[in-house]
TrEMBL record:
This is 16S rRNA (Guanine(966)-N(2))-methyltransferase RsmD. The gene is rsmD. It is an enzyme of class 2 (transferase). Residues 1-27 are annotated as: Disordered. One of its GO terms (molecular function) is nucleic acid binding. Keywords: Methyltransferase, Transferase. Gene3D superfamilies: Vaccinia Virus protein VP39. The keyword Methyltransferase applies. Its EC number is 2.1.1.171.
Amino acid sequence: MTRIIAGTAGGRRIATPPGSGTRPTSDRVRESLFARLQFLEAIEDATVLDLYAGSGALGLEAASRGASRVVLVERDRRAADVCRRNARELALPQVEVRAEKVERFLEGDGGPAYDLVFLDPPYDLADHTLAAVLERLVGRLAEDAVVIVERSSRSPEPVWPVGIEVLGPRAYGETTIWYAEYLPEGEIA
């Protein structure tokens, strides 16, 4: 069972896509992740992007906790439909779902600058593919944006593009969460 932990939809269950190969972030990991994000003041009124959304758990949690706009990107149409249903049933109108490949979405025309970005790709996504996605993401980030990457604890550290500074990893068994921040060139400490 996956549920929203806190906020306006706190305690409510969300559906997960059957048989789509998605791997929802556990409640325990999401609870720790969002505690840190609240400490960083990265959620309230944020424009959020959830790439490889799966059930939408991360983006929906952010919306429940006060994000002003959330875009969920999921290429699997069945999973995208589950995301839409979850957002509707949780009464989170600020959530938009895009059923397309992450790479195609990031190549699209402009759009808002994102304050908070979640990347929770399949664990078998090649490291060089993740690096290319992170590189494309840089042009879509607001200054001081927080970037979260969830990977297998057996995976190496992601290859970060210029402008993204690592704040550090947190390991939770098989899962490692990488925290990073976007600082335009010249501002990196």
